[in-house]
Amino acid sequence: MKLCIIGTGYVGLVSGTCFADIGNNVICVDIDRNKIKNLNSGIIPIYEPGLEEMVKRNINQKRLKFSYDVNEAIKKSDIIFICVGTPTIKKTNSVELKYVYQVANKIKSNLNKYKIIVTKSTVPVTTGDKIESILKKNKYKSKYDVVSNPEFLREGEAIRDFVVPDRVVVGTKSKKALKTMKSLYLPIIKKTTRFFSTSRRSAELIKYASNAFLATKISFINEVANLCELLNINIEEISVGMGLDQRIGERFLRAGPGYGGSCFPKDTRAIVTLAKKYKINLSIANSVIKSNDNRSKILLNRILKILKNKIKNKNITFLGATFKANTDDMRESPCLKLIPALITKGAIINYYDPTGPKKEIEKFKNVNFSKNVVDATKKSDLIILHTEWNEFKQLNVKKLTKNKNVIVYDMRNIYSPEKMKKNGIKYYGIGR
Ligand code: UDX
User: Fold this and answer.
1) pTM higher than 0.85 for the full model?
2) Does domain 200-432 have CATH number 3.40.50.720?
């Protein structure tokens, strides 16, 4: 099929490339001409394992191309995927939809034949209705269907999550559109994936409700971890014991520094704001947001306690800065609250992340990016394991630093407390 993907961010670029890889002809469009030029020469603007190779392969096989001529791309395509950003509007917590509506207007003026318009960006419930009302006024009087097809891609695992998803959700009442979407996804569905069709509004809400629930699991286990620390219980035992119940499931029950990223924080706030508009109080989602926002204060207090309130001129190292491993994304990463707070108390911060220095951290004073683990830890008083990158998992801390009193605060529980103790390293974990 001939697809047009509008927006080449995480969702658009991964979706467009994967659709090309299963045999479709895909034009990915973006207004950023420089980005388009780079993409056509195989330069990828995001860190997503496996994506660069897949983009190059599909460009070479002439199934994938990048363009900034959105009019032409829409005219030539049968299915148009809206994959533009839907960020949170600061202070209001509601979703910025102007980019979505700008695209809808572009589609309206190029609706030269029947097309299926698909919202893949995470959009509030009823956005599809509004897109429909924009398209109604198209001068060609063409027929069209507006479909919701939310993505469930995790950064760092996006290709796998696209090619082997737990489910494909499609929201439409049009039998014609449903048939086309089913055949588009056929190469993926046959691999034991559930193709779930529902109303458009249900599909829009499924996305928000799923992310809010996953965030709930994380905030729940993080709060239980706080309790475990006072009861001398290992949270990992609780996660395993709970997760063996199929109704709970073992995934998204790992205690850590709190959830970050571009989705959980945004989508939890959006669903609460949406509900408030209809005078509904999603009290659980609300408390999940508060719990996660408060987590950095809890971790900061723990650090003060570990250092016996002597922070001034202490060398504190962050291993990893991104909000999780296998991504270069710093959006709402927990360290963005911890680092400035520690600097204010006089700490000297070293950090290393496999994806390089971070502009969000470089703007602070008394911060130094080291280009590897050894440089980052040689003078450490406290080593904070912030992001669970694989290269940190086999560290021999004893060899890393000359400071015999170095302390390790493992915010992802990737180290063995017993091994640390045996090596004479003072060790703290999360919830254990
Ligand atoms: C999430 C959803 O998983 C995905 O389905 C949706 O499409 C986009 O948002 P993403 O934000 O990329 O994906 O990352 P994810 O792997 O879900 O982790 C989100 C946050 O939760 C990260 O900060 C991660 O460190 C944290 N997390 C995740 C935990 O603290 N514990 C866990 O057990 C799992």
Assistant:
1) yes
2) yes
